[in-house]
Amino acid sequence: MNLKKIVGYEAVEWVKDGYVIGLGTGSTTHYFIEKLAEKIKNEELEVLGIPTSYQSFFLASDSGIPLTTLEEHDVDLAVDGADEVDPLFNLIKGGGAAHTMEKIIDQSADKFIVIVDDSKMVDVLGKFPIPVEVIPPALRIVKEQLMNMGGQPDLRMAERKDGPVISDNGNFIVDVKFDGISEPGKLEVMLNSIPGVVENGVFAGLADEVLVATTHGLNILKRV
Ligand code: 5RP
Questions:
Q1: Could you tell me if 155 and 118 are in contact, meaning their C-beta atoms sit under 8 angstroms apart?
Q2: 0.90 surpassed by pTM
Q3: How far is the CA of 24 from the centre of ligand 1 (A)?
Q4: How far is the CA of 147 from the centre of ligand 1 (A)?
Q5: Could you report the per-residue pLDDT of 100-139, keeping only the tens digit for each?
Q6: pLDDT band at 224 (very low <50, low <70, confident <90, very high)
Protein backbone atom coordinates (compact mmCIF):
# COMPACT_ATOMS: atom_id res chain seq x y z
CA MET A 1 0.00 0.00 0.00
CA ASN A 2 1.52 3.32 -1.06
CA LEU A 3 0.37 5.62 1.75
CA LYS A 4 2.05 8.68 0.24
CA LYS A 5 0.11 8.15 -2.96
CA ILE A 6 -3.18 7.65 -1.10
CA VAL A 7 -2.88 10.89 0.90
CA GLY A 8 -1.44 12.86 -2.06
CA TYR A 9 -4.34 11.84 -4.28
CA GLU A 10 -6.95 12.38 -1.56
CA ALA A 11 -5.78 15.96 -0.92
CA VAL A 12 -7.09 17.17 -4.30
CA GLU A 13 -10.57 16.99 -2.73
CA TRP A 14 -9.61 20.20 -0.85
CA VAL A 15 -9.10 22.09 -4.14
CA LYS A 16 -11.94 24.31 -5.38
CA ASP A 17 -12.41 26.01 -8.75
CA GLY A 18 -10.66 29.38 -8.89
CA TYR A 19 -8.11 28.52 -6.19
CA VAL A 20 -4.45 29.48 -6.22
CA ILE A 21 -2.59 26.49 -4.76
CA GLY A 22 0.81 26.41 -3.06
CA LEU A 23 2.52 23.32 -4.43
CA GLY A 24 4.73 21.67 -1.81
CA THR A 25 7.90 19.69 -2.40
CA GLY A 26 8.76 16.01 -1.87
CA SER A 27 7.61 12.52 -2.76
CA THR A 28 4.16 12.90 -1.12
CA THR A 29 3.34 16.20 -2.81
CA HIS A 30 4.56 14.64 -6.06
CA TYR A 31 1.38 12.53 -6.00
CA PHE A 32 -0.75 15.55 -5.09
CA ILE A 33 0.58 17.54 -8.06
CA GLU A 34 0.12 14.57 -10.39
CA LYS A 35 -3.52 14.15 -9.35
CA LEU A 36 -4.18 17.90 -9.32
CA ALA A 37 -3.12 18.13 -12.98
CA GLU A 38 -5.59 15.35 -13.79
CA LYS A 39 -8.41 17.06 -11.83
CA ILE A 40 -7.81 20.43 -13.52
CA LYS A 41 -7.98 18.78 -16.94
CA ASN A 42 -10.99 16.52 -16.26
CA GLU A 43 -13.09 19.13 -14.48
CA GLU A 44 -11.87 22.08 -16.58
CA LEU A 45 -10.97 24.03 -13.45
CA GLU A 46 -9.42 27.47 -13.39
CA VAL A 47 -6.71 26.75 -10.85
CA LEU A 48 -3.22 28.24 -10.63
CA GLY A 49 -0.19 26.76 -8.86
CA ILE A 50 2.69 28.44 -7.06
CA PRO A 51 5.61 26.01 -6.73
CA THR A 52 7.78 25.86 -3.61
CA SER A 53 10.85 24.48 -5.42
CA TYR A 54 12.37 23.64 -8.78
CA GLN A 55 11.12 20.09 -8.19
CA SER A 56 7.49 21.16 -7.93
CA PHE A 57 7.95 23.77 -10.66
CA PHE A 58 9.17 21.20 -13.21
CA LEU A 59 6.60 18.59 -12.22
CA ALA A 60 3.71 21.07 -12.33
CA SER A 61 4.72 22.69 -15.59
CA ASP A 62 5.38 19.31 -17.25
CA SER A 63 1.93 18.17 -16.07
CA GLY A 64 0.26 21.24 -17.57
CA ILE A 65 -0.72 23.05 -14.35
CA PRO A 66 -0.88 26.81 -15.06
CA LEU A 67 1.57 28.59 -12.76
CA THR A 68 1.81 32.00 -11.17
CA THR A 69 3.92 33.74 -8.52
CA LEU A 70 3.46 35.32 -5.10
CA GLU A 71 4.00 38.69 -6.77
CA GLU A 72 0.80 38.19 -8.77
CA HIS A 73 -1.49 36.19 -6.50
CA ASP A 74 -2.30 35.31 -2.90
CA VAL A 75 -2.46 31.62 -2.01
CA ASP A 76 -5.86 30.11 -1.14
CA LEU A 77 -4.60 26.67 -0.20
CA ALA A 78 -1.10 25.27 0.33
CA VAL A 79 -0.56 21.51 0.34
CA ASP A 80 2.78 20.26 1.58
CA GLY A 81 4.50 17.23 3.11
CA ALA A 82 6.51 17.06 6.33
CA ASP A 83 9.31 15.06 7.92
CA GLU A 84 7.79 15.11 11.41
CA VAL A 85 4.45 16.26 12.84
CA ASP A 86 3.72 16.55 16.57
CA PRO A 87 0.25 16.50 18.24
CA LEU A 88 0.10 20.33 18.21
CA PHE A 89 0.76 20.40 14.43
CA ASN A 90 4.34 21.65 14.85
CA LEU A 91 6.39 20.37 11.93
CA ILE A 92 9.91 19.67 10.85
CA LYS A 93 10.32 20.21 7.12
CA GLY A 94 13.23 20.59 4.74
CA GLY A 95 14.18 16.99 4.07
CA GLY A 96 14.30 18.10 0.45
CA ALA A 97 16.09 21.37 1.29
CA ALA A 98 13.10 23.41 0.11
CA HIS A 99 11.86 24.68 3.50
CA THR A 100 12.61 28.38 2.91
CA MET A 101 10.26 28.78 -0.03
CA GLU A 102 7.86 26.26 1.49
CA LYS A 103 7.57 28.36 4.65
CA ILE A 104 7.02 31.58 2.69
CA ILE A 105 4.23 30.03 0.64
CA ASP A 106 2.67 27.80 3.33
CA GLN A 107 2.45 30.61 5.90
CA SER A 108 0.94 33.02 3.38
CA ALA A 109 -1.87 30.64 2.44
CA ASP A 110 -5.43 31.11 3.71
CA LYS A 111 -5.32 27.42 4.53
CA PHE A 112 -2.29 25.15 4.89
CA ILE A 113 -2.78 21.40 4.89
CA VAL A 114 -0.06 18.87 5.57
CA ILE A 115 -0.11 15.47 3.89
CA VAL A 116 1.82 12.61 5.49
CA ASP A 117 1.82 8.90 6.10
CA ASP A 118 1.60 7.84 9.72
CA SER A 119 5.37 7.22 10.02
CA LYS A 120 5.77 11.01 10.23
CA MET A 121 3.64 11.40 13.38
CA VAL A 122 5.71 11.79 16.57
CA ASP A 123 5.02 12.73 20.20
CA VAL A 124 7.96 15.13 20.37
CA LEU A 125 9.86 16.65 17.43
CA GLY A 126 13.55 15.96 17.13
CA LYS A 127 14.39 12.50 15.79
CA PHE A 128 14.71 14.15 12.39
CA PRO A 129 17.47 16.80 12.41
CA ILE A 130 16.36 20.37 11.70
CA PRO A 131 17.41 21.58 8.26
CA VAL A 132 18.88 25.08 8.44
CA GLU A 133 19.62 27.05 5.27
CA VAL A 134 22.86 29.00 5.67
CA ILE A 135 24.57 31.62 3.52
CA PRO A 136 27.87 29.91 2.55
CA PRO A 137 30.41 32.46 3.91
CA ALA A 138 28.70 32.28 7.32
CA LEU A 139 29.00 28.50 7.65
CA ARG A 140 31.72 28.26 10.32
CA ILE A 141 30.28 30.88 12.64
CA VAL A 142 26.72 29.63 12.23
CA LYS A 143 27.87 26.09 13.12
CA GLU A 144 29.61 27.45 16.23
CA GLN A 145 26.44 29.20 17.36
CA LEU A 146 24.33 26.13 16.68
CA MET A 147 26.68 24.11 18.90
CA ASN A 148 26.43 26.78 21.62
CA MET A 149 22.66 26.27 21.48
CA GLY A 150 23.16 22.55 22.14
CA GLY A 151 22.78 21.37 18.54
CA GLN A 152 24.96 19.00 16.54
CA PRO A 153 25.30 20.58 13.08
CA ASP A 154 26.14 18.55 10.02
CA LEU A 155 26.67 20.09 6.57
CA ARG A 156 24.41 18.17 4.16
CA MET A 157 26.47 16.54 1.41
CA ALA A 158 25.20 16.00 -2.12
CA GLU A 159 24.72 12.70 -3.90
CA ARG A 160 25.91 12.45 -7.51
CA LYS A 161 27.66 15.83 -7.06
CA ASP A 162 30.90 16.33 -5.17
CA GLY A 163 30.63 18.55 -2.12
CA PRO A 164 27.64 20.01 -0.26
CA VAL A 165 24.00 20.28 -1.28
CA ILE A 166 23.27 23.72 -2.73
CA SER A 167 19.68 24.84 -2.15
CA ASP A 168 17.38 26.33 -4.80
CA ASN A 169 18.48 29.70 -3.38
CA GLY A 170 22.21 28.98 -3.74
CA ASN A 171 22.88 28.27 -0.05
CA PHE A 172 24.17 25.43 2.14
CA ILE A 173 21.93 23.19 4.25
CA VAL A 174 23.09 22.32 7.76
CA ASP A 175 21.14 19.53 9.48
CA VAL A 176 21.06 20.12 13.22
CA LYS A 177 20.26 17.41 15.73
CA PHE A 178 18.73 18.49 19.04
CA ASP A 179 17.77 16.01 21.74
CA GLY A 180 13.97 16.30 22.05
CA ILE A 181 12.58 19.69 21.12
CA SER A 182 10.36 20.82 24.01
CA GLU A 183 9.54 24.30 22.67
CA PRO A 184 9.50 24.24 18.86
CA GLY A 185 8.21 27.82 18.55
CA LYS A 186 11.07 29.21 20.64
CA LEU A 187 13.67 27.14 18.81
CA GLU A 188 12.33 28.29 15.43
CA VAL A 189 12.78 31.94 16.43
CA MET A 190 16.21 31.35 18.02
CA LEU A 191 17.58 29.59 14.96
CA ASN A 192 16.44 32.37 12.66
CA SER A 193 18.07 34.97 14.92
CA ILE A 194 21.57 33.70 14.03
CA PRO A 195 23.10 36.01 11.40
CA GLY A 196 23.77 33.93 8.29
CA VAL A 197 20.72 31.71 8.77
CA VAL A 198 18.20 32.21 5.99
CA GLU A 199 15.44 29.96 7.36
CA ASN A 200 15.04 26.79 9.40
CA GLY A 201 12.78 23.78 9.01
CA VAL A 202 10.70 24.16 12.20
CA PHE A 203 7.17 25.19 11.22
CA ALA A 204 5.55 25.92 14.58
CA GLY A 205 1.78 26.17 14.60
CA LEU A 206 1.37 26.94 10.89
CA ALA A 207 -0.68 23.98 9.73
CA ASP A 208 -4.48 24.14 9.73
CA GLU A 209 -5.14 20.48 8.97
CA VAL A 210 -3.06 17.32 8.80
CA LEU A 211 -4.13 14.44 6.57
CA VAL A 212 -2.55 11.22 7.77
CA ALA A 213 -2.64 8.08 5.64
CA THR A 214 -2.61 4.83 7.61
CA THR A 215 -3.08 1.23 6.56
CA HIS A 216 -6.60 1.51 8.08
CA GLY A 217 -7.61 4.61 6.12
CA LEU A 218 -7.22 8.36 6.10
CA ASN A 219 -7.29 10.43 9.32
CA ILE A 220 -8.23 14.08 8.96
CA LEU A 221 -6.87 16.06 11.92
CA LYS A 222 -8.15 19.60 12.33
CA ARG A 223 -6.67 22.32 14.48
CA VAL A 224 -8.81 22.87 17.59
C1 5RP B 1 10.99 19.22 1.39
C2 5RP B 1 10.05 18.89 2.48
C3 5RP B 1 9.18 17.69 2.28
O4 5RP B 1 7.87 18.10 2.32
C5 5RP B 1 9.48 16.69 3.37
O6 5RP B 1 10.86 16.39 3.34
C7 5RP B 1 8.65 15.41 3.19
O8 5RP B 1 9.07 14.76 2.04
P9 5RP B 1 8.42 13.39 1.54
O10 5RP B 1 7.01 13.67 1.16
O11 5RP B 1 9.29 13.00 0.36
O12 5RP B 1 8.53 12.38 2.66
O13 5RP B 1 9.96 19.53 3.49
O14 5RP B 1 11.85 20.25 1.76
A1: no
A2: yes
A3: 8
A4: 25
A5: 999 999 999 999 999 999 999 999 999 999 999 999 999 9
A6: confident
- 49 plus 79 within the same structural domain: yes
Query: Are 116 and 210 within one domain?
Result: yes
- Regarding whether 106 and 13 lie in a shared domain, the answer is yes
Nearest atom in ligand 1 to 30's CA: 10
CATH number at 9 reads 3.40.50.1360
Domain containing 143 — which CATH number? 3.30.70.260
- The string of pLDDT tens digits covering residues 129-183 is 999 999 999 999 999 999 999 999 999 999 999 999 999 999 999 999 998 899 9
DSSP designation for 136: G
Q: What does the alpha-carbon distance between residue 73 and residue 2 come to, in Å, rounded to a whole number? A: 33
Total structural domains within the chain: 2
Domain with 71, as residue range(s), is: 3-123+204-222
Q: How far is the CA of 98 from the centre of ligand 1 (A)?
A: 8
Which of ligand 1's atoms lies nearest the C-alpha of 28?
10
Which residues have C-beta atoms less than 6 Å from ligand 1?
Answer: 24-28, 80-83, 93-99, 102
Those residues whose C-beta lies under 8 Å from the C-beta of residue 186, and which sit 6 or more positions away, are none
Nearest ligand 1 atom to alpha carbon 115: 10
Helix-then-strand count for the chain, H and E: 6, 13
